[in-house]
Write a structure and sequence with these properties.
The termini are far apart. The protein is of the alpha+beta class. The model has no long low-confidence stretch (mean pLDDT 94). The chain folds into two domains: 64 residues, Winged helix-like DNA-binding domain superfamily/Winged helix DNA-binding domain (Arc Repressor Mutant, subunit A, Orthogonal Bundle); 181 residues, Chorismate lyase (3-Layer(aba) Sandwich), CATH 3.40.1410. A six-stranded antiparallel β-sheet has the order 4-5-6-9-8-7. It has a two-stranded antiparallel ribbon with strand order 1-2.
Length: 262
């Protein structure tokens, strides 16, 4: 038998799914909901917490509870890397028209707000091993955030690593003010004669850290997908390693594998 808070949550859930409560609508105050359902305030708050965990409502401090606005879906496919490679050598005006985020979301360039920060660090144990380089080798660490202009949270959290000496031939690749680079990383690497031969992506899931949950605007209980992307050149050398944290409530991973016929 359903508990009292579950029945309240189910009633509010049905109102949201039926469209009687629309995205952005404010729910009645907790006091009014207590009167409406004839239950205690702790029971009501259990119901609201359940709906928050499902991502249906959000609590805005000092204002109340609101039906959560659906966020832009990001569909990440395994075709995105070949798409980026095909564009890497195109003229800059063509590359500048659209990027992988626009491809994944269906948004336009003007819809997006982009942020990049670069810094030089020394390779430590795990990342040095992944690159196959000595500990202490200079790396360029690049942090990226991209969000839809109408939303406050970024689509994901990206931290990318390049071996500094591998790309230093082109000083523009060390300059964060050159971002966003038309054509993305593959086009950047092309300027120093690097062609990618394969990309490996390893994906795991885990609860977010408190900082990740806050920055990504995650409802309570939402997991993140953690993607380690390693890009290899045509000789099999790792040339770019990226760690991408993807919010579980707005990310769809689509893998299409064409099979050879017998």
């Amino acid at each position: 038998m359903a508990k009292a808070y579950e029945r309240i949550a189910d009633d509010l859930r049905q109102l949201i799914r039926a469209g009687e409560l629309h995205p952005g609508d404010q729910l009645p105050s907790e006091t009014k909901l207590v009167e409406q359902y004839g239950k205690s305030l702790p029971t009501l708050r259990q119901a609201l917490s359940l709906l928050q965990a499902e991502g249906l409502i959000e609590k805005v401090h000092g204002r109340g509870n609101f039906v959560r606005l659906p966020r832009t879906l990001v569909q990440r496919t395994n075709g995105r890397h070949q798409w980026e490679k095909d564009r890497a050598r195109e003229p800059e005006p063509l590359r500048a028209q659209t990027g992988s985020t626009e491809r994944d979301t269906g948004l336009e360039l003007n819809d997006l707000v982009f942020y990049a920060a670069y810094r030089e660090i020394k390779a430590e144990g795990a990342i040095a091993e992944a690159f196959g380089i000595p500990v202490g080798t200079a790396l360029l660490e690049r942090t990226y955030r991209t969000r839809y202009r109408a939303e406050s949270a970024p689509f994901n959290l990206v931290r990318s690593y390049l071996v500094r000496d591998m790309v230093a031939e082109n000083p523009d690749l060390l300059d964060e003010s050159k971002e966003p680079w038309p054509g993305g990383t593959q086009s950047q690497l092309f300027t120093v004669g690097i062609e990618l031969g394969r990309i490996e992506e390893r994906i795991t899931a885990r609860p977010p850290t408190a900082e990740e949950a806050e920055e990504l605007g995650l409802p309570p209980g939402t997991s993140v997908l953690v993607l380690r992307k390693t890009s290899y050149d045509v000789a099999g050398r790792p040339v770019d390693i990226s760690d991408v944290t993807l919010p579980g409530d707005r990310t769809e991973l689509l893998f299409t594998t064409d099979l050879e016929r017998w």
